[in-house]
TrEMBL record, chains A, B:
Any single GO BP term: fatty acid biosynthetic process
Subcellular location: Cytoplasm
MF terms in GO: phosphate:acyl-[acyl carrier protein] acyltransferase activity
InterPro entries per the UniProt record, alphabetical: FA_synthesis (IPR003664), Phospholipid_synth_PlsX-like (IPR012281)
Described purpose of this protein according to its UniProt entry: Catalyzes the reversible formation of acyl-phosphate (acyl-PO(4)) from acyl-[acyl-carrier-protein] (acyl-ACP). This enzyme utilizes acyl-ACP as fatty acyl donor, but not acyl-CoA.
EC number: 2.3.1.274
Organism: Micromonospora humi
Subunit structure: Homodimer. Probably interacts with PlsY.
This protein's name: Phosphate acyltransferase
Top-rank EC class of the record's enzyme: transferase
Catalytic activity: a fatty acyl-[ACP] + phosphate = an acyl phosphate + holo-[ACP]
Protein family: Belongs to the PlsX family.
Cytoplasm as UniProt keyword: yes
């Protein structure tokens, strides 16, 4: 729909979130002010949450009786639950009835559903989830993969670099993103065999600056930090938990010299707002490498997070992430074929 | 020296730190108020940093002409630089002329030097570096490995659990530490093949509570968080960088409603002190699984960090970490032999 002058349409998976369907429906209805929304989930659980039991204007209800829970094995659930909200939401996008899908459900199952119904961008072995972390006094950083994969081969990390660079172009407006490979040191001997091999392969990727440490993810040295989904999950959760803990302690310190009750509360609000606005990670990760827009929110996403996830999806649609990753991938595949040929012939 | 009534003796590696020998010598001299110190490094670089060019009482100088830098390959440096401060400091401990060593140098080379000169605790395949993270509103958490290894086999993670539990007993005084395996989810299907296997093996380890997420490392759910050195390095650096960034933003928010210059600065100091006291990671990691105490500080450790590293080393000596890990390991090896026999016979 890039360039088309109409409201974007987003399919929202209402089943399988940690906090039940209530905050998801509330967030989707809030997003419906500017976006057409398809609520996908068990009809009888969604209806009671709609005003008067009826979808308001701009909102459509799509019954999906099968629910994939957080504890479900993604592969088994994808094969057994054919009418899950995940597979039906992805099918809406595949059929062109929605421009994007948003889910706070089981991440592994969401990735499989998107890959199954939307297909992968040609040349992509594994799709990757990307998020945007703000960096004080510098531009934000794209971090990927944050959980679509559990381990990674060197070649996948190269693919993630291409996907992440395109995401940085679309979301951050950075023309030539600087790409770093998350490792345990800057030296090329670091990182174990998978990262050492990826480091060598990445030399052919435009914008690659080398191995980086976790410090650099928030350090303004790179626009894209590439890692496997296991390490990305740990890094992101460590980030979020440390942020929470630090805000809590900063508030305690502020309280220590705030004399009056109401004034103290006002100050606390301002400190919290400043820090969170400055540092909070985005409410959802974009699944890159599939032929459609899919945003995965936290399992415990609140209504505001779901609405923010819809905003991310709309921005991905408007900036044409899918088309652009396809083009970038075709170029990258050509480059790698040349590199391989040179390596073989040389 | 556990139980011996004399000043502890700590060998401090003065070469190879990021900031040069100055802060290391300054920190070691500060520690010499309560601890006998051996300064190990190139004599001509240390002498000018001593008052009057002579070691003060309680301080000894040990010339080590070979310097291992941060960019040196640990294996190559260990074999080529036989008179490095790392190998000589470890030899002091091995010969009983020092009770512990402290180094802000190349981590990989420090691990190899300690393993080579001190030997490993029988049953330990790989030593691990452990740090203590404070957790607001709960007891602190031991996190290991934070960088002695780059990858891990399932069996090594089980060894790390035994080492970490003993460290928690010695340093935190927790009698029966709760142990978690750092993963990307609580479900046993998560974490990839290495962690899934480790999860099964860990079932026989007393105190094991299952797979945990990075959230839980600071969540008061466990006393020991076990992971490979690559993931531990990323988690710790993400933690430290997020803490710094959050403190910076919290200060900006405090400044926004602090009217007077001097008062503002006083408030800033108080916020920073409260947050850092509450959340700062320890200045050094203890190398567990070798037959001697070795503490590795940050490469960019300041004088206060080096002195704090000496304090950690002294606490490890006093609590008898080495003896206790040896005993724990002997017990754990017996247990695993039984488990293996049951598995084979059953």
């Amino acid at each position: 729909m890039s360039g088309v002058d109409r409201r974007p349409r987003v399919a929202v998976d209402v089943a399988g979130a940690d906090l039940g369907p209530e905050p998801v429906v509330a967030g989707a209805l809030a997003a419906a002010a500017t976006t057409d929304v398809v609520l996908v989930g068990p009809r009888e659980r969604i209806r009671p949450l709609l005003p008067g039991g009826v979808p308001p204007p701009g909102v459509r209800l799509l019954d999906a009786p099968d629910v994939v829970g957080m504890a479900d094995d993604p592969v088994a659930a994808t094969y057994a639950k054919r009418r899950s909200s995940l597979l039906l939401a992805a099918a809406e996008v595949a059929a062109g009835r929605a421009d994007a899908m948003v889910t706070p459900g089981n991440t592994g199952a969401a990735v499989l559903a998107a890959a199954a119904r939307l297909g992968r961008v040609p040349g992509v072995t594994n799709p990757a989830l990307a998020t945007v972390l703000p960096v004080p006094d510098a531009g934000p950083t794209v971090l990927l993969d944050i959980g679509a994969t559990a381990t990674a081969q060197p070649e996948w990390l190269v693919e993630f670099a291409v996907l992440g660079a395109e995401y940085a172009r679309c979301r951050l407006g950075v023309e030539q993103p600087r790409i770093g490979l998350l490792s345990n040191g800057h030296e090329s001997v670091k990182g174990g065999p998978v990262r050492r091999d990826a480091h060598l392969l990445l030399a052919a990727t435009p914008g690659y600056v080398g191995q980086i440490e976790a410090y650099d993810v928030l350090g303004g040295r790179v626009d894209v930090a590439v890692t496997d989904g296991f390490t990305g999950d740990v890094a992101l959760k460590m980030y979020e938990r440390t942020l929470d803990a630090t805000v809590g302690l900063a508030l305690a310190a502020v309280r220590a010299f705030s004399p009056i009750g109401a004034l103290a509360r006002d100050r606390e609000r301002r400190v919290t707002a400043t820090v969170r606005r400055g540092l909070a990670a985005e409410a959802g990760g974009a699944l890159l490498g599939v032929r459609g827009v899919c945003v995965v929110c936290h399992g415990a996403a609140g209504a505001a997070d779901v609405a923010a996830g819809v905003d991310i999806a709309v921005e991905c649609v408007r900036s044409g992430v899918v088309t652009r990753t396809g083009v970038a991938f075709a170029a990258s595949s050509r480059r790698r074929r040349v590199v391989r040929r040179v390596a073989v012939d040389g």
